Protein 1
Amino acid sequence: MNIIFLGPPGAGKGTQAQRICAALNIPQISTGDMLRRAIADQTPTGLKAKAYMDAGGLVPDDVIIDIVKERLQAPDCAGGYILDGFPRTVPQAEALEGIATIDKVVELDVADEKLIQRISGRRVCLKCGATYHVSLLNGATTCANCGEPLIQREDDKAETVLNRLKSYHSKTAPLVDFYQARGKLVKIDGAGDMDAIFAAILKELQA
Ligand code: ADP
Ligand code: AMP
């Protein structure tokens, strides 16, 4: 099954995508993780993307579409995947229609006030993409999966977060109607407990 996780920054897309991918044994394709790795490796794509990301804006469509197109050709995508953070604009969604057939789009719905609280406490592992919240780390500073040091993302600092929410509402939220019109949208309340949300998503995907 080819699945999209849609929702604002901090909605829990990465957290749930990682768990659902492990349960279904399919790859998680996070464009944000791919871009952060490209920046760390100082690749041409990373150098192009950095200024947009630091400002809380979106990386240009042509850059991100090329990255996804190439990634979806890898053999591990043949049995399905979760796209986490792509598409984020209508032109990206239109381009995706020429690249892949999407079966379901899971929208995680969370109010802005809660998103700010979640994002400000987020800590991530750049190596394996695992995501944590500082309130649940009990002082740990390394990744429980792979032992790498955890970091706070540059774009999770307060001054950037409002730009990211703005760009979600103006550029990405229209995708809710886009996929609703195609009969692919499943809306999940993303405000509750992580285990309950995981179970709700899995149930919808297996329906
Ligand atoms: P996204 O990928 O949508 O930007 P993340 O999965 O990185 O969001 O989650 C953002 C932050 O919120 C992380 O710190 C994560 O640990 C935390 N988080 C995710 N889901 C929940 C939840 N259901 N309840 C409380 N905190 C959550
Ligand atoms: P994320 O990890 O999904 O929160 O993404 C972090 C940042 O990467 C975003 O704020 C954007 O700057 C950039 N990014 C990730 N995915 C996309 C995309 N599909 N289109 C444009 N920019 C993206």
Note: The chain has a mean pLDDT of 96.
Protein 2
Amino acid sequence: MEDTPIFPDPPVVTVERTLAIIKPDAVHRADEVMEDIKSLEFSILNQRRLRLTPEQASDFYAEHYGKMFFPSLIAYMQSADIIALVLAKRDAIQEWRDLLGPTNAVRAKQEAPDSLRAKYGHDQTRNGLHGSDSYHTAEREIRFMFSESITEPIYHGQDATDYLQSKVNPVLTKALTHLSKQKPEDPLTWLAQWLLDNNPNKPKVTEVDT
Ligand code: ADP
Ligand code: MG
């Protein structure tokens, strides 16, 4: 009885995360950018406003070290606050890149007038917005900007099903079975306490003061 799965398999979804940055030349229009992001149906998982040091800016753009535009890129990126955003959506990485348009905002205005860089950017360097260019870049850039947040990749499809079935469902099934027997007045608090008491990952030893 206790082994009967209560939860159906999760649906297969391929939600991706990507890192967007509202760069210094667009930060005064941040509200408008956020409105655009929401109307394009991206979820904003995390956001922070920060000022990069020259070292951080160089680190973030390390792949361009040595190129002619590198010094002006670093000067620009640390010239004012930026807003880093973790966006989530199905195929978020490619979709956000497509919405940005060409890297050079002058070209964007000519060739892709509806693109976000046409709207918010100014020139080759000051192009308003950033977007990660691949899955691995996105993970690295999210970790760079949000080092305190959990940045493990999101499981997809069968991996997500396997993960929930092996790590979550057995414990939750047991908890909910006990809960239905006990019928506590405040089931959520009861459940929270039960999970704390029965956490299979609880440390086996407790620290003692020396
Ligand atoms: P993207 O941001 O589209 O991924 P890149 O990774 O090639 O573009 O370049 C990073 C940033 O460096 C650009 O967003 C832009 O701010 C700046 N940049 C790129 N190429 C040039 C260039 N040729 N001249 C001046 N600045 C540039
Ligand atoms: Mg790039």
Note: The chain has a mean pLDDT of 89.
